[in-house]
Amino acid sequence: MRPPHVQEVPAVTTTPQAVRRASPRTRRPATPAAPDPSAGLLPQAEPVRLLNPDGTPLPSRADYPEPPVEMLRELYRRMVVGRRFDVQATALTKQGRLAVYPSSRGQEACQVGAILALRDDDWVFPTYRESMALTSRGIDPVEVLTLLRGDWHCGYDPALRHTAPQCTPLATQCVHAAGLAYGESYQGRDTVALAFIGDGATSEGDFHEGVNFAAVFKAPVVYFVQNNKYAISVPLSRQTAAPSLAYKGVGYGVPSEQVDGNDPVAVLAVLTRAVAHARAGHGPYLVEAHTYRMEPHTNADDATRYRDADEVEAWRDRDPVARLETYLRARGVLDDDAVAAIAEEAEAYAADLRERMNARPTVEPLSLFDHVYAEPTPQLVEQREQVRAELAAARESEGDA
Is 306 annotated as catalytic? Predict the structure, then answer.
């Protein structure tokens, strides 16, 4: 019999579940956070910039080291010659020597920087606006403008120049670039393809198909978007709600970057890294350059309908040629004599172009049907014979007269 002051303690029934709950040694660790699928893909929040608009340098960056100064001097030379070419080509349209010309004035850093980032055996896939890029690649300017005056399909040999014909339909070159790059990689070559794209082309299906294919098959392509703020007259705000066009890469698993497209040093640095990424077998890379075309969309466009003079003037203060000239002068690698010599070279280049473009080309009308298909279709043969008959009738009529 228990003493009256001792209380009976009820028995405690322990279960395996209770033991597990009570034991700190069996507590499950916290579930680790899932990896961020966008890590390494998103562009920086602000466009990469290495020079201020006035040409003064910004602090150096480990992720985008400055290109060698000799390359920057060559970049300046080609930009000056390219701008003079562009001005001369615009004048040729007013003289009736060209049917149409899409100027790239204001986009010199993008046009020339992209070419300098590539090897000669890499491939370029241009749009209709890349005439300056093609002349910078060493293609005869008369051959470049042959398409724009309408007397041949393509004035240069694409295979010889590793340069596809200038592309008028928007974004179709994105698919072509992906296919060629994949083919080169499949055959064990380290060739890189660079596709020029305008901001308007990113709204086309071919852009998305090309980037997606390149990402899946790790094709070594650099998609270079020159965002000049207008798809003809449509402003960027009516084309996309994305923070910038560079963000479109993440949806396909493609790393992207955005750069100040009027900063020649930054453009060359960013594209050099993008090309190296593709060449190393890591797949495609998307670069968006924020730039501006100073002239109308083409000579047939009235740009005053959709943008005002103040906007254009604001971008004039960000001139890429003046920006680089100021920087190189401060570095001591460019002086008055060098600037004058390059300007003289540009004038000679324009004079030679003007003289040769003033000569009326000799055209064979039936050549219009050459190279359309490897094997002409019955319809094409019929059309060619109709033209042949019309030419014969015209000659006969001239003989009677």
Answer: yes
